[in-house]
Each structure stands twice: as C-alpha cells, then as structure tokens.
C-alpha cells in the first residue's frame, strides 16, 4: 500500500482518539481532587508542593485540561478550573453519580475491552468482582433510575400499595426517594453484597418504613409469606444467566399480588436506539464469566410470557444507552382489556344467537 495512504489512514485513527481525552482528564481530576485544587487560579508548582504529586505529570495533566477546556490559563502561569464545565466534579456540588460513572468506565469497562484479544484467544473470561466494584455500580444504576422515578411514582399513587420490594437495591437510593413521598408504604431492599447493604442501612437510618436484607434475588421471598404489591427489578438481567431468567420471574410470580406490578429497567440489545453503546455494553458483559448478555425484545416477551407475566408499556428512558423501562404484571391492563373484549364478544354472540332463535320461532 502507498506510504502516503497508510500515513493518512493512521492520521484519521489518531484524530478519533481525541474524544477519549476529556473523559480521561475528568477521571484523573475527579479521583485526585485536582479540580478543587485549581478552584482558584494557582500555579502547577504550588499544587504540586501541596499535594506531593510529581510536577511533570501534573503539568502534563494541566496542559490536557487547557486543551479540552476543563482548565483555563491565567496570567503568571496560573490555571483555574472551568466551573461551567467541571462544577459536577468539584466540592459540595460534586455529583457522586458522575464520579461513579467515570470510575466505572475507566476502571471497569475500558480495561476489560482492552483485554478482548487475550480473552478471545485464551477462552478465559474475566471475573466481575462484586465486592470491589459493587458500590460503584450501585451509584451508576441510581443515575438511570432517576429517569423513571416520575413514571413509577405515578403508578404507585394510582394503586393501593402496601409493600414495595427492590431486588438488587444497591445503596437504597430509589427506595429513599419513594419513601419520602410514601412514608406509610412498607419497603424492603434486597442485595447480594453485604457492604452495599451496610451502606444502604446507614444512608436510610431516618426512614422507619425501609429495611434491608442480604439475599440472592433468585431465591428471595417475603419472610412472612405475604404478597408484594410492587417489585423493582432495575438493571438486573445482565447478572442473571439467560437460562435462569425464567426461574427468577417464576419465583417473583409466586409472591407478586395478582394485581401487582413489576417495574423493570434494563438496557436492551439490538434496538433502534443507542445501538453502538448497547452493543459495546453487551461486549463488556459477555467478556465476564459471571455477567451475561443483554436481553433483546424477543427474549423479554418470551420469558415474561413463559412466567405468566404480561409485559407492557415498553419505553426508552435513555435512548443513547438503549435503556428501557416497562411493566410486568400477572394481570395487566392489556390482559384485562383482552378479557373484557372476549366477554363482550361472548355477550354479543349470545345475544345474536338469541335474536336468531326468536326469528326462527316467529317464522315457524
């Protein structure tokens, strides 16, 4: 191949790497608190002396920050954080969700994707460490749930709800948001990770209507044998082997009220929204021996039907990531509508036969 063509092709790939730099820079600054260090205009030397970080490495990070507009250069070789661009990574305004998202991407997703050639050749998949990364994943999951909370609150207000169970509850943030509006509803959070549950209990200490249990969601059921009105099944399917998903739903069916509702949030594979992200996310999951492929719409319909749930109201909540929300119920509005239609059809058929019989009687 012509050397000029080769060089130009390499140049194109090099330019594509630019989009990675803001994420890398934000991750380093967030992890080390550097955006706070440069909250007011300071020299690299001053920050290096205070923090103990190497001057040359810190100086290189600062130069990248200026290039991606996270930092602004000021007179006398001083630099200041751009509050407009980086306020969510600074001080009291710092968003734990944004920091967790960067941490998950840089420490989990990208390292695994870089190991793909080794994994493909060796057939030895990575092992997801729930103890090490469980809390970070709990934070990022809470970000996604934010987009569905209005829909869920509306559903709860429209029903006579006594109990809510959150399977894979993480730090319990979703239950706390619901408990603020529904203080008389009994709520239970279930998670496999003891550290995550311990943290959830501390954060939820002011809510007397929430309790937390360490447990396997595939086997969990209410201690007193009562039925549950609402179950939250958020970002769970990729932790459950596809062959075991029907068993999980059947287990849930055994304790969900006939008129109860299961709220599901999950990324879906092969959809018309966020195909690039969902396929990359799916690649991350299948590269692990204890994480599993994302469901597609066909599988979701099949597994819910197999478990005697009706699935309805499938809506994208984060199109860029192909995250969807939907309801499952033993007795959904769709099923009730169909049953009503069948009853109406039967009544019309019966009335029609009666009219035919009357007409025959009059004719004879």
UniProtKB/TrEMBL annotation:
Keyword presence, Secreted: no
Keyword Transferase: yes
UniProt xrefs under InterPro entries: Methyltransf_25 (IPR041698), SAM-binding_MTase (IPR053173), SAM-dependent_MTases_sf (IPR029063)
Comp. bias (Basic and acidic residues): 335-364
Keywords for the protein's UniProt record, in alphabetical order: Methyltransferase, Transferase
PANTHER family, per the entry: METHYLTRANSFERASE TYPE 11, S-ADENOSYLMETHIONINE-DEPENDENT METHYLTRANSFERASE RV2258C
Name of this chain's protein: Methyltransferase domain-containing protein
């Amino acid at each position: 191949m012509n050397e000029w063509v080769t060089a130009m092709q390499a140049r194109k790939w090099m330019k594509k790497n630019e989009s990675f730099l803001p994420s890398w820079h934000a991750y380093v600054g967030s992890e080390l608190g550097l955006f706070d260090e440069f909250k007011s205009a300071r020299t690299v030397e001053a920050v290096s002396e205070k923090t103990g970080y190497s001057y040359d490495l810190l100086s290189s990070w600062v130069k990248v920050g200026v290039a991606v507009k996270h930092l602004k250069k000021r007179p006398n070789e001083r630099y200041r954080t751009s509050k407009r661009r980086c306020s969510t990574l600074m001080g009291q305004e710092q968003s734990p969700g944004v920091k967790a998202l960067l941490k998950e991407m840089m420490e989990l997703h990208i390292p695994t994707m870089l190991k793909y050639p080794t994994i493909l050749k060796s057939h030895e998949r990575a092992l997801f460490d729930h103890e090490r990364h469980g809390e970070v994943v709990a934070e990022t999951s809470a970000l996604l749930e934010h987009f569905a909370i209005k829909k869920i609150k509306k559903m709860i207000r429209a029903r006579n709800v006594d109990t809510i169970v959150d399977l894979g509850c993480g730090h319990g943030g979703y239950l706390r948001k619901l408990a603020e509006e529904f203080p008389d509803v009994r709520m239970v959070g279930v998670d496999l990770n003891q550290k995550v549950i311990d943290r959830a209990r501390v954060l939820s200490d002011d809510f007397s209507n929430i309790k937390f249990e360490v447990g396997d969601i595939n086997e969990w059921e209410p201690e007193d044998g009562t039925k549950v009105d609402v179950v939250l099944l958020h970002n769970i399917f990729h932790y459950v082997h596809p062959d075991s998903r029907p068993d999980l739903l059947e287990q849930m069916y055994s304790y969900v009220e006939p008129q109860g509702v299961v709220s599901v949030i999950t990324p879906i594979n092969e959809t018309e929204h966020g195909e690039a992200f969902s396929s990359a996310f799916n690649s991350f999951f299948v590269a692990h021996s204890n994480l599993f492929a994302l469901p597609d719409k066909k599988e979701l319909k099949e597994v819910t039907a197999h478990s005697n749930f009706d699935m309805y109201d499938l809506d994208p909540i984060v199109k860029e990531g192909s995250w969807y929300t939907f309801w499952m119920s033993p007795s959904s509005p769709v099923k009730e509508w169909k049953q009503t239609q069948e009853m109406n059809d039967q009544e019309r058929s019966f009335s029609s036969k009666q009219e035919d019989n009357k007409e025959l009687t009059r004719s004879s």
